[in-house]
Amino acid sequence: MSLLKWSAQLDIGVSEMNHQHQDLLDLMNNLHDAYEAKQPFDAQKVCFLKLKTATVEHFTNEEKYMEKIEWAKLPTHKIIHQRLLEEFGKHEKIFFEKNELTEDFFRFLKFWLSSHIQGIDMEYGQSVKQKKGA
Ligand SMILES: [Fe+2]
Ligand SMILES: [Fe+2]
């Protein structure tokens, strides 16, 4: 079962970032599928590391984009990205120690993806939209 499906509510109005968010969502769903299918640790690890790499890349790209549009809230947004990576790292440690993922980890992913995108990512997206309309 998919962890999260793409919906219009996740559309922030910036196509490049929307694509990266969709890719992250796909990787999360792949990892969730591997977890539910009780695939071996190594197979789950591959999915996990793909998601980690894509997340780090996305945050870097997004921060560059916000710099380009001179988004005033960039410093706070960067701190929030950093905290998410720290949280991700905590789950990674547990995963590598116990060789299994937890429901708690998936709750974190689901919450992160939906609330972060619909919250602070949406904010810069809306400001770009307004500027274009002006
Ligand atoms: Fe973000
Ligand atoms: Fe984002």
Describe the structure in your own words:
There is one protein chain. The chain has 134 residues and is mostly helical. The chain has a single domain (15-133), classed as Hemerythrin-like (Four Helix Bundle (Hemerythrin (Met), subunit A)), CATH 1.20.120.50. Helix content is 79%, strand content 0%. It has helices at residues 15-36, 41-68, 74-98, 103-133. Helix 1 packs antiparallel against helix 2, helix 1 packs antiparallel against helix 4 (103-133) and helix 2 (41-68) packs antiparallel against helix 3. The radius of gyration is 16 Å and the shape is elongated. The chain starts with 14 loop residues before the first helix and ends with a helix. The model has no long low-confidence stretch (mean pLDDT 95). Bound molecules: fe (ii) ion (2 copies). Residues 17, 21, 58, 62, 117, 121 line the site of one fe (ii) ion (FE2).
Descriptive keywords:
single chain, 134 residues, mainly alpha, Four Helix Bundle (Hemerythrin (Met), subunit A), 0% strand, elongated, binds fe (ii) ion
In a few lines, what is going on in this structure?
This protein has helices spanning 15-36, 41-68, 74-98, 103-133.
What small ligands are held by the chains?
fe (ii) ion
Count the E strands. 0
Which CATH class is shown?
A: Mainly Alpha
End-to-end separation: 42 Å
List unreliable stretches of 5+ residues. none
Give the overall form.
Answer: elongated
